[in-house]
Write a structure and sequence with these properties.
- This protein starts with a strand and ends in a 20-residue tail after the last helix.
- The chain contains 8 helices and 8 strands; from the N terminus they run βαβααββαββαβαβαα.
- The chain has helices at residues 26-36, 45-50, 55-62, 89-100, 128-133, 146-154, 164-169, 172-182; strands at residues 3-6, 40-43, 66-70, 79-87, 106-108, 114-119, 138-141, 158-161.
């Protein structure tokens, strides 16, 4: 293996700038292992979130949304789209369960039927107010804070936290197919050890 293409960056330069590579540091050990085995890594998190056909387009496709658009005010990341028909909250939660296979779903009920959907893979909860302003009925994302659930409910927006991994994992198959098409002589395969880091013992 010569190259790993991953979503989450090995070097989190925003929150933890790399000053040195040390074996007594988690990030340092990962980098040392790559260097030791001469393996390159490409990790383009936010770029892939926003890219056409990237994380959030894949998430919208997984939920079978139609007329998908980039949500204005979502920094090019969040997508909006329409369900083929209106659903009750319970019907929509069942759809999310079937298509994303989350360990569980946390949600607050905005109190209306669901047709217009906003999606933001991973920790996009901060965009819930914009989703409400754009008259979305529901926003599917992850890592939602308690106060965000409360405020979304007050705004009449159903907020669904389907988990960080399930809302981003949808792009892996897309990446594999794209790379295989662009580089037909290259062996491309999805990691079989890739899985949700949060365990569910319920």
């Amino acid at each position: 293996m010569d190259l790993i293409v991953a979503h989450h960056p090995i070097m989190n330069c925003v929150w933890r700038p790399v000053q040195s590579i040390r074996s007594d540091d988690i990030q340092g050990r990962k980098l040392m292992r790559l260097i030791e085995y001469n393996i390159s890594a490409i990790c383009m998190h936010t770029n892939l979130d926003a890219a056409p056909g990237g994380v959030n387009d894949a998430l919208a496709a997984a939920l079978e949304l139609e007329q998908v658009e980039v949500m204005e005010g979502g920094e090019g990341i969040v997508r909006t789209g329409l369900l083929p028909e209106r659903m009750s909250l319970q019907q929509f939660l069942a759809l999310v369960e079937e298509r994303l296979k989350p360990n569980g779903e946390r949600y607050s009920d905005g109190g209306r039927l669901i047709r217009k959907v906003a999606v933001g893979g991973g920790a996009c909860g901060g965009y819930f107010r914009t989703a409400a302003e754009k008259r979305c009925d529901v926003f599917v994302t992850a890592d939602v804070k308690y106060d965000q659930f409360l405020d979304a409910k007050e705004l009449g927006l159903t907020l669904v936290d389907a988990g960080h991994y399930p809302t981003e994992d949808v792009v892996c198959g897309v990446l594999v197919r794209y790379l295989a098409q662009q580089f037909p002589k290259l062996a491309v395969q999805q990691s079989s050890s890739d899985r949700e880091v949060i365990e569910d013992d319920i």
